[in-house]
Amino acid sequence: MYATLLALHSLTRWLVLGSLVFAIFRAYRGWLFNKPWLKFDDITRHGTATMAHIQFLLGVTLYFISPIVNYFLHNFSTAVHERAIRFFGMEHVTMMLIGIGIISTVSAKAKQKPTDIEKFKFLAIWYTIALLVILSSVPWSFSPLISRPNFRAF
C-alpha cells in the first residue's frame, strides 16, 4: 500500500504543477490583457484547488504510514540532525501545507472579488507564490539537498 500511495503521490505532483502553471498563465493573461473572467477561468481555478486537495490527502496519508516519518517522530532528537529524515518529517510537509493552504484560500477568496481584473490579479500573484513555495520543497531528482525520482513506478 505504501509503494502504491507513493507512486500516486509522485504522479499527482505533475498534475498539481501542471494545473497550477496553467492557472497562473490564465491569471496573468487575464490580468495583463484585461480579459473577461470566463467560466473556463472558474473551472481552472477550482480544478487547481481540487488537484491540490487530492495531493494533500495522498500526502497526509503517506505522512502517517511512512517509515521515514515514523522514524523521525520516534527518534526526533537524532533524526532532526539527519537531512533526508528531517526533510520528509518536517520541512516537506510544512512547506506543502503552506502551499496548499495558499491555493485553497486564494481559490475561495478570488471568486469573491468584485471585478474580473481583481480576480485575475489576486490569483496571479498568490498562485505564483504558492508555486514557488511548492517548487522549493519538492524532492527533485536533481536536488543537491534531497533527491528522489521524478517518476515512481507502480
Description of the molecule:
Helix content is 77%, strand content 0%. The chain is mostly helical and 154 residues long. It contains six helices and no strands. It has one domain. α1 packs antiparallel against α2.
Question: What is the compact description of this entry?
Answer:
By secondary structure, the chain is an all-alpha fold. Helices cover 77% and strands 0% of the residues.
Defining traits:
mainly alpha, single chain
Estimate the strand proportion: under 5%
Integer-rounded radius of gyration = 17 Å
The biggest beta sheet, please?
A: none
Q: What do the pLDDT scores average to?
A: 96
Domains, number: 1
Q: Please report the total strand number as a whole number.
A: 0
Order of helices and strands: HHHHHH
Residues in helix, % = over 70%
Judged by helices, strands and strand pairing, the structural class is mainly alpha
Cα shape = elongated
The number of helical runs is 6
Write the layout of secondary structure elements.
Blueprint: H1 2-32, H2 39-65, H3 67-74, H4 76-79, H5 83-110, H6 116-136
